[in-house]
Amino acid sequence: MSSIFMSSYENTAPFKVGPDYIDPGYHKLFTGNESHNLDIFMFDERTVKHIFKVNSKGHNIAIVEGVIGLYDGIGHTKDNFSTAHLSGVLDIPIILVVNTKGISTGIAAEILGFKMLDENVKIKDIILNNVSSEKSYISLKEAIEKYTSIECVGYVPRNEKLSVESRHLGLKQAMEMKDSQKITEKINLFREIAEKCIGIERIREIAGEFSPEDEMDSFKPIKELKIDTVGKKLQ
Question: 186-197, pLDDT tens digit by residue?
């Protein structure tokens, strides 16, 4: 899903919440730029801010792909290392992607739940996924905007060509996609969907409302890493 947005802009800075090596590989494949993990469980907030700021510089837009569900992390507190938690640390807006399969008016209740669970989380817009038709999108959009007051910025149509190939051990990795023609076709499909079905300029406007903090300029890189656990037996 995120690759659709990332490949729709020139010079995107891609990021992924949490430790992940599969999605960042696809980010690089479809944007041409290195993707970086943002993990507030493994790193402190100051370090994560630094990673985000440094690797956003010189790019036209930064896009962070979330992990699992918006509020899903470790435990049930609000500061549970989830996507929502990270968005608060970086003070960045959220575009919530919601699956529409087998649902109608009830989608408004689902989104309202996301909105009300933590009103400090900045859900700016909604993108609907797995939509059967434009007519269905218009109907769902009407229900969402009527009951939640959150704008729908577009949708991703149901299309088997968007799926990532899988195998018995899981998803195929980006490095296994060696057919340049298929890669080009996939990128063109992403851009076509984005142009026809998603408010790309609106997303650009949302991103333009945010700028990373400047206080991280004095961050000192680690010159030498000392590992005290080498050779020790874990209890």
Answer: 888 888 999 999
